[in-house]
Amino acid sequence: MYLQIWNMSTKASLQQIRGHNGGIWALQYRGNLLVTGSCDKTIRVWDMRTGETVHELVGHSSTVRCLQLHKEEKNLLVSGSRDKTLRVWQLDTGVCRYTLSVCETRFFFFFR
């Protein structure tokens, strides 16, 4: 699977990013940082300038369905998966700081 990055002003293709072994279900970006979640159960943190993977975050046991970059704590990411867990990740190290199990199969979260 790959993800194509475009310059919307010039309509030029900038990068073709490859790495996931399944479809991408979730995406967040800030500046040149791109985070993707996939049905391959992983999250990838990318540098959009180079197209290189900065970290591969492993820990979910099913499809990663949602991602949210924290607005104030720039180094934190929350992921949600069909495995009924939310995970809080530290982006600079790729380490999972917390895992929360939930009862429902559907959940939504937002940072203010």
In brief, what are we looking at here?
The protein is mostly beta strands and 112 residues long. The chain contains no helices and 10 strands. The radius of gyration is 14 Å and the shape is globular.
Shape: globular
Instruction: Supply the number of structural domains.
Output: 1
The fold-level CATH name is Thrombin, subunit H
Number of strands: 10
Regions with little confidence, pLDDT below 50 for 5+ residues: none
Strand residues, percent = over 45%
Major pleated sheet: 4 strands, antiparallel
Average pLDDT metric: 89
Order of helices and strands: EEEEEEEEEE
**Number of helical runs?**
0
Return the CATH class: Mainly Beta
CA gyration radius, whole angstroms: 14 Å
Computed structural class: mainly beta
Q: Quote the distance from N terminus to C terminus.
A: 32 Å
CATH architectural designation? Beta Barrel
Helical coverage, percent range: under 10%
Strand ordering within the main sheet: 3-4-5-6
